[in-house]
Amino acid sequence: MRDFSHDWWRHAVIYQVYIRSFADGNGDGEGDIVGLRSRLGYLHELGVDALWINPWYPSPMLDGGYDVADYRAINPRFGDLDQAQALIDEAHALGLRVILDMVPNHTSWDHRWFRAALAGDQQARARYLMRPGTGDHGDQPPNDWRSVFGGSAWTRLTEPDGSPGPFYLHLFDASQPDLDWTNPEVHEEFISVLRYWFDRGVDGFRIDVAHGMAKDAALPNLGYQPGMLEAPEVEDHPFWDRDDVHQIYRDWRRVADSYDPPRMFVAEAWVDTAERMANYVRPDELHTTFNFDFVRAHWNAPSLRGAIDRSLGALSAVDAPTTWVLSNHDVERQATRLGRADTSGGSGADAPVKPGSVDAELGLQRARAAALLMLALPGSAYLYQGEELGLPEVLDLPEEALQDPTWERSGHTIRGRDGCRVPLPWTVAGRSAGFGADGSWLPQPAGWGKLSVEAQEDDPSSTLNLYRAALRLRRNLDGVGTAELTWLDAGADVLAFRSGDLICALNLTDAPVPLPEHSEVLLTSGDLGPDGSLPVDTAVWLAVGC
Ligand code: NOJ
Q: Which domain CATH number covers 492?
């Protein structure tokens, strides 16, 4: 059997901790490291292999911490370096690996480099993308690029003497100036930051906007307006998915490989095709990249099967594993998304929560089935905190509570991503449903405690226990997550495949279907029919027949 101890990332189930909303240890309304440490036992019992923690660095938090002011420290709202080290050590003691978030496309405007740039330091300015204004008065932006969050991607500096200065590029919020990755100082700094955390035992990094660091030096106009994370219709895009970005990752790979055990990376790269995605995980580049095809897929057999086949095909060509993702802190939660007429999602910043009614019961039924589909597939899988509780998107957050910069930058037309970031419910009653404070930074809706861990713990049919059972089986059955996938013919619009000792079937027709041949029913996302058939929008795990 293949030894996976060093390339655990090929089949790991990784739990995304949105730290600000996970567990509040000091009662200030925001999650923190102390809270996370107190819940490591929960994650261990859930059965995941690793945690990915969203940015926990000092930050003005104008984009949820993706505006990093210091890459080598901890935001005092979340704790300190000693607590971070204790967390890493305690997670390791439980067999949980720890992945942090690296944000290399931009810093915060509070980063010491940008502050120096503001103060007029030319060497510091050369680390960012700064250009003179255009137009008769030099007061127009250098080009027509738009921020993903809305509005121009350029903001003008004010010089220390109060006069107007050059414009700086920010593909996201104005508080997130883009770095100039043609500057060797930028490369050196990030290599040093990687080592800083690797030396502290961190097992890997998720790379934010991994497809965005290389820009066309000529900064040409784009010619179209929407602020998009993806731009499939544009060839030779001036800032997304340019070939130059790959050299950065070859360098980073050498750093990761210089450790024992080697460290790993997962790229957040919203690219157009599975082939482009595969470029990020060629043998001398990154280990894995998020595959957002399940987020974008429609809830029907051709769309889901197409996503699976395309990803497996393109990634096996470069000997990389696929990753599977149903949601994260940027997209509408699947229990809501899958209850809509249009079930496909996108990145939350530029694909806002869709209008229209939601069938919550249907959404949850499908989300449970989707979980069994995802966890049966070969490759690694990412769970976003709260999906194991079947949490819905909170669609009615009061406007004054909204924090996503998209809300302001879109002129209050796009509410943004806060609805999937509401603090977790741990207990049925008590302070913020066990989150740990009298109130929380985003208000929890009424009845949130009914979805809590405590409420689901002893209910064998709860979503929490479905995830626990699936993760236990995935661990114990031979080949699940690692063996090749073979499609089975179970009729049109029934997705059925074998991988290792497991058969998974998902009924996407509009009537119950018979189960594929098997020796035992292991797990179902909902009750089977009285005749043992597989109901619509239901998935089953079966032991392979003799
Ligand atoms: C992707 C992150 O997931 C998102 O939350 C953030 O707003 C952008 N990158 C900018 O860093």
A: 2.60.40.1180
